[in-house]
Amino acid sequence: MSIIQVERLSKSFSYYEKELGFKKSLKNLVKRKSLIKEAVSEISFAIEQGEMVGFLGPNGSGKTTTLKMLSGILYPTSGQANVFGYVPWERKKEFKMQFSIVMGQKSQLWWDLPANESLYLNKCIYEIEDKAYNLVLDELTEMLDVKDLLNIQVRRLSLGERMKMELIASLIHRPKVIFLDEPTIGLDLISQKRIREFLKHYNQQTKATVILTSHYMADIEDLCKRTIIINQGKIVYDGDLRRVNELFHAKKIIKLQFTDEVPMQALIDYGVIIQHDGMNAVMEIDKHDLQRLSKMILDRFPILDFTIEDIPVEQGIESLYQKDGVRHESLAEV
Amino acid sequence: MSISLSEIRKHVRMFYIFAKNSLLGYMEYKANFYSGLIMETVFLFSKLIYIVFVFRLGIEINGISPDEMMIFTGTFTIMIAIYTGLFMDNFYRFAGHIRNGTLDLYMTKPLSLQFMVSFRRVNFAFPIPNLIAGITMVVLAWKRLGIEPSLIHLAGYIGVILSSTVVTYSVLFLPQILAFWTVKSGAIFDILDKCWDLNNMPMYIYPKWLRRIGLYVVPILFITNMPSVYLIERLDLVLGIWIFAAPVLSLLVVRMFWKLAVKRYESASS
Questions:
Q1: Interface pTM (ipTM) of the complex?
Q2: Contact between A153 and B28 using a beta-carbon 8 Å cutoff
Q3: Which residues contact A22 (CB under 8 A, 6 or more apart)?
Q4: Which chain B residues are within 8 Å of A153, Cβ to Cβ?
Q5: pLDDT digits (tens, 9 = 90+) for A200-249
Q6: What are the residue boundaries of the structural domains of chain A, listed by start?
Q7: Given an 8 Å threshold on Cβ–Cβ distance, is A96 in contact with B21?
Q8: CB of A75 within 8 Å of any CB in chain B?
Q9: What DSSP string runs through B152-197?
Q10: Are B222 and B172 in contact (CB under 8 A)?
Q11: Is A210 helix (H, G, I), strand (E, B) or coil?
Q12: Which CATH number fits domain A250-310: 2.40.280.10, 3.40.50.720, 3.40.190.10, 3.30.70.980?
């Protein structure tokens, strides 16, 4: 049985619009026109124990709202969810004892105190025995290389160091399920990489189930075999990230470098020109015609270098985002 | 969350850790601690000037002698110490937790959410001068009035102070919960602040209708008056029962309203 099961889960929010200007604000004070936004719309999926699943989607697509429902912060408008046997929004203590959520933009550490005080607070909140606490703390601080920073005030730590402490605070009770909402946001590349390595290692070691949302493709590519792509509150793709482009199987990218200048007009018949500066060109061409067109290009133009590549994952995802919701459904693997 | 003995023990322990962390935080900012202490002392002295005037003039208000008046003022000052120490910082921050989304994180912890937002911070600078001044006033007036200083009397007074503390929490926290709908609660806080000052004087100076509303409907007058009325032996049967009933009822109302609000919580944007 799956550790996380979600069925036709939806969440709507009411909001209101205010047009520019003082007059409109005054009008708003008396009467507001209430509007409804469907943040998440009838999504369904299941996640197995130990899986690490990436949630991808543009801002406002419903990723965080989904995580908030799965962690019991929000009540859904409709639908069902089951996380290791519990309905999250019933907010049972036994449920809370076994999961954790890390929000890259929100902190649970006490700003003015050393991190070890906040960690000790969590030890008491999660009712962890002294021996187990010391063991896990040693292990996590070693893995994240922050043992020497435990006694330093949180406000004096760098963003990367603080994030590591946030992770320790969230994992100190060895949760079965971990929701990570943009855990690497704002971090430099090295810190991002370190946190990714840690998460990968932690998942392998503890078999914890992880759902990760991130804007950084590298986070998802590195960590998650499976990716769920959400756009406008709907799942548009659920599967291996590297296979996103198979939805658009027909295209390949070729990169050309010339020894002499080649005008754009001369290339136009071979495919869609993405970039061109006379000496270099990047083109999107039909996969079925790849052999024939490549031969023609090599024969006709003064080629110095020639490479064939898949369409970048980002581009495939962007194409998914740009299409409307209904067509997505037909494209999605789900 | 079911209320079991072990849960109560856990929450008491957590309160101790919250208080310890607050104190540690205070000690990091010495200047802030001392300036808070000085500010509250100056504020207290400005209020005491009024009291001294009333006391010197020796005016009786509705049968309340200046010495009895000092019991009221002393109790009010003690209640200010309790309010500023335990609740003020938490109530001030509450709407911010909703606005900034920190409530999201608290909500996922296996600890009562209401407890966590109500007692996460303890203020140590503001209550000190109020507590010293309040206790001094009550002890002085107690002596001058010749009230028997028995242990039962003292325990009774502390008991009513505890009852008032629960009512203070309920009356002042209930409007804060509106922040779940309104998100900003500054104006609500200001209204309450003004109502709180009604406790500055004994309730006997107010008309009967206002006294009844302030005791039984929105028990803001309960806070200072009940412990004082107990001490000056003006307690009748109805008020005696109300001392026990008001904290239970007000806490129940707050708890129900809280549960309703949390269910409707829509969280801040990520």
A1: 0.84
A2: yes
A3: none
A4: 28
A5: 999 999 999 999 998 777 888 889 989 998 888 999 889 887 777 666 55
A6: 4-244, 250-310
A7: no
A8: yes
A9: HHHHHHHHHHHHHHHHHHHHHHTGGGGHHHHS--HHHHHHHHHHHG
A10: no
A11: strand
A12: 3.30.70.980
Q: CB contact, 8 Å: A185 with chain B? A: no
Digit-coded pLDDT (tens) for A281-308: 998 888 888 888 888 999 999 999 999 8
Whether pTM > 0.90 for this model: the answer is no
3-state secondary structure of A86: strand
Name which of A75, A120, A125 is nearest B109 (Cβ-Cβ).
A125
Instruction: Establish if A71 touches chain B: CB-CB under 8 angstroms.
Output: yes
From A106, A112, A126, residue closest to B105, measured CB to CB: A106
Q: Give me the CATH code for the A4-244 domain, please.
A: 3.40.50.300
DSSP A261: -
What secondary structure does DSSP assign to B28-60, as a single string? H-HHHHHHHHHHHHHHHHHHHHHHHHHHHHT--
Closest residue on chain A to B266 (Cα): A74
Residue A173, pLDDT above cutoff 90: yes
SS3 B108: coil
A117·B263 Cβ contact <8 A: no
Quick check: helix, strand or coil at residue B268? coil
Q: How far apart are CA A58 and CA A230, in angstroms?
A: 8
In the predicted model, residues of chain B with pLDDT beneath 50 are 1
Cα separation, B253 vs B175, whole angstroms: 12
Residue of A nearest to B101 (CA): A106
Chain B contacts of A72, Cβ < 8 Å? 107-108
* Residue of B99, B108, B113 to mutate, testing the A interface (most A Cβ within 10 Å of its Cβ): B108
